[in-house]
Amino acid sequence: MWLETPVFQEDLERFAAQEQIPWQELRGKTLFLTGGTGLIGSTLTSGLLYANRQRQLGMTLVLLVRDVERAARQFSDQRAYSGDALVLAEGTLERLPALPKPIDYVVHGASPTASAYFVQHPVETISTAVGGTANLLALAKEKNAAGFVYLSSMEMYGTIHTEAPLTEKDVGYLDPLVIRNCYPESKRLCEALCAAYASEYGVNAMSVRLAQTFGPGVAANDKRVFAEFARCAMNRQDIVLQTEGRSKHCYVYAMDAAAAILTVLLKGQAGCSYNAANPATYSSIREMAEMVAQELAGGKIGVKIAATEESRKKYPADHFLNLDPTALRELGWAPTVDLMEMYRRMIAAMGL
Predict the structure, then answer these.
(1) Nearest of 49, 128, 58, 117 to residue 93 by alpha carbon
(2) Cβ atoms of 263 and 21 closer than 8 Å
(3) What residues contact residue 56 under an 8 Å CB cut-off, 6+ apart?
């Protein structure tokens, strides 16, 4: 179990020790989290429960889940040491369950993450994202929550033709008629909803624009490129790219992402968005593949291109997303893990 691995235990200790996070703001509070069973959500859940115990915060964490029994199995280790601090609330974004009062903070991370899903289910991608976010913002307004954070994506920047660092104001073009763009377009609209609720209703709502995130907790059979590259290295199989691999962007370690979310939740400014990325990881897909082939596989595997017109439709057009995290750094956050170490720690937790 990846939760029991030394690398993840080290992550938990580092997370709970971060002094830029105003932990006292969580003392005796209730935090409602969606997307808690995904990589980022489960990492944040584990970190919060560990810090809750270590710092004796008396916090309650309520997770929105579709299947309580399945979630109970997934979080069995955390529940063993957190007791009543972890509450599993069965429901959906469309039909929220009855929730304890008060809800002091909301983190909204529920979202599909697979490119194939976006292309096959664009209507559901848009409607769930926008409708679900509207429901949660209404909940935050009703509960008079002290903070609301929406987990957005670097993809909302659209087409960028420069490799210069991107601040939160440097948004590029998106063609709304390209089906794959249903995902970044919905992210943009959800950010707009956060800003609208902040402006019209005074909800302390903010967004975090996450770079692609990975680390311990990624399943060994995950279909995203970073997991595929890791498997290829461990199994001594050539890496086969479904595009030319020219797109370049940043990455962020899963526990660094969790710290970024909590930092924004407790210290961010209403109506604002914040980039969460490690600029040192900025590289193209092909460069990352070649790094993995050389460093992890010792040069014993190669990188091949097998791009077709059909395969290209599943991925964004070539883009450059060199996210500038200065605004988040000014809140005290800083990335701690580089790209190669992200791979090493992910693989160690996978047990490959």
Answers:
(1) 128
(2) yes
(3) none
Place of tokens 């974004």: 93
- pTM for this model (two decimals): 0.94
Structure confidence by residue, pLDDT tens digits, 27-36: 999 999 999 9
Is residue 43 pLDDT above 90, yes or no? yes
Number of other residues whose CB lies within 10 A of the CB of residue 77? 13
In CATH, the number for domain 2-215+251-279+322-338 is: 3.40.50.720
| Alpha carbon 135 to its chain's center | 20
Identify whether the C-beta of residue 343 lies closer than 8 Å to the C-beta of residue 230: yes
DSSP letter at 146 equals S
* Each residue's pLDDT tens digit, 196-233: 999 999 999 999 999 999 999 998 888 888 999 999 99
- Report whether the peptide linkage leading into residue 97 is cis, meaning its omega lies within 30 degrees of zero: no
**Cα 84 to Cα 114: distance, rounded to the nearest angstrom:** 33
Mean pLDDT within 235-262 = 95
Q: How far apart, in Å, are the Cα atoms of 237 and each of 217, 288, 298, 303?
A: 23, 16, 12, 9
151 close to 111: Cβ distance less than 8 angstroms: yes
Domain borders along the chain are 2-215+251-279+322-338
pLDDT tens digits for range 45-94: 999 999 999 999 999 999 999 999 999 999 998 888 888 999 999 999 99
Contacts of 112 (CB under 8 A, 6+ apart): 118, 121, 124, 125, 128, 183
Pairing state of beta strands 278-284 and 248-253? antiparallel
Helices (H), the chain: 6-16, 39-55, 68-74, 76-82, 115-120, 122-143, 182-201, 225-235, 254-267, 285-291, 309-312, 326-329, 339-350
Tokens in use for 251? Answer: 């990455």
Question: In 182-253, which ranges are continuous DSSP H helix?
Answer: 182-201, 225-235
